[in-house]
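Hey Z.,

So I finally got round to the uracil thing we talked about over coffee. Here's the setup:
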Amino acid sequence: MAPWQTDWHLARTALDWQLDMGVDEAICDAPISRYDLPQKRETAQTPAPAPAAAPAAPALAQAVDPVAVACQLAESASDLAALQAALAAYDHCELKLGARNLVFADGQPNARVMIVGEAPGREEDRQGKPFVGEAGQLLDRMFAAIGMGRDNPDPAKALYITNILPWRPPQNRDPSSDERAMMRPFVQRHIELVDPDILILMGRISAGTMLDTTEGITRLRGQWRKVMGRPCLPMLHPAYLLRNPPMKRHAWEDLLSLQATLRGAR
Ligand code: URA
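And the result:
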């Protein structure tokens, strides 16, 4: 038996190390030693032939620009199903490799209000739907307080929900600026296709990405801005509200402001 199988402290250190490396789930009850498994490919045990000389790289080979590819794919999507397929086909974001599911959207595509969050968490990654974990449940309660919900078929009371990133970042880390830049063309096309009257930018990452600012969300929240020619309201993220309950009063102010704007806007 390995020492960490009998010593609690060693086992704990080994577990912490795995968490640091990004492991967040146990797949089997017992560990598997990959060294003890039979070699799958026979060629792995025979000496490899000497490599042929690599062909010279073309002098003017162009590196792929992930943002340009994203723009091209997003612009060619003529409806939501095509946009989802375009995202699924996009291979330049490494987050895709670690995610279980592509989290595209939830709610009613004919809603007047579209919410743009940050990125899926563990539960969203499992279910393939945005905002279904603890923060999502708070989000549902917040909007229910002003008579709105993702399941409401009435466009005036409905919500359509998506995120800046469709794949879960490991350990819910902040998405990098490169990752946000790659996904922005898809989010913009998503907004064009849904064509909501009002956008809610839920949290720091969403507001920062769509408004192209590093200003803090506690300053931005509650201030109506414009994104792609339509009114948008940055709000405090429900995950932040769960950690800072006294800030819920600001979320309530913003919900009332949304309600008033919706009443006045049509
Ligand atoms: N937080 C987000 O911003 N989006 C989700 O889908 C879940 C949590």
